[in-house]
Amino acid sequence: MCEICGLNRILVRIAKGLIRHLDNTFNYWNLQFTVERIRPSTKTADVIRDAAQKMTYVERGNGVFRCLYGFTPDESRHAMFFLIFFDAVGFCVTGCVAAPKQPVLLAGEKE
After folding, report:
1. What residues have CB less than 8 Å from 87, skipping those under 6 apart?
2. How many structural domains comprise the chain?
3. Residue 105 lies in a domain
4. DSSP symbol at 1
5. Which of 57, 61, 103, 106 has its CA 20 to 30 A from that of 49?
C-alpha cells in the first residue's frame, strides 16, 4: 500500500469517527469520501476564513488538532471537514453521496 493511500484511509477514518461522535444520526455509509491536501496560500486562508463563518470549530490539545466541520441538513447528506494538525499540515475531507453509475452500453446494445 502506498503512503498516500494509507494516509487517505486514516483521514477518512478520522472524518467518519467525528461524524459518529458529533451527530450519531448521520448515516455516512452511502457517502464517497475524497481527501485533498490544503496548501498554504492567501487564497486557502481566505477560503477557510469564509468557511469558518458557516462551519463549527473544534480544537483538541492546544492546537495539536483543529477542525472545521459542517453537515448539510437535506436528505442527500454531505459532510465536509478541514483537518489541521500542529498548525502545520491540513486536509479537506469531503463525504458526498456518489452519483449512480450509468451502465456502459456497447455499440448496438439496447437499454
Report:
1. 63, 66
2. 1
3. no
4. -
5. 61
Is the C-alpha dihedral spanning 93, 95, 99, 104 positive or negative? positive
Question: Is residue 111 domain-resident?
Answer: no
| pLDDT tens figures, 11-35 | 999 999 999 898 888 888 888 999 9
Beta-carbon contacts of 111 under 8 Å, excluding residues fewer than 6 positions away, are 103, 105
Single-letter code of the amino acid located at 28: Y
Residue 110 domain-assigned? Answer: no
pTM of the model: 0.78
* Alpha-carbon distances, residue 24 vs 4, 9, 28, 43, 110 (angstroms): 29, 21, 10, 33, 44
In a domain, 48, yes or no: yes
> Is residue 60's pLDDT more than 50?
yes
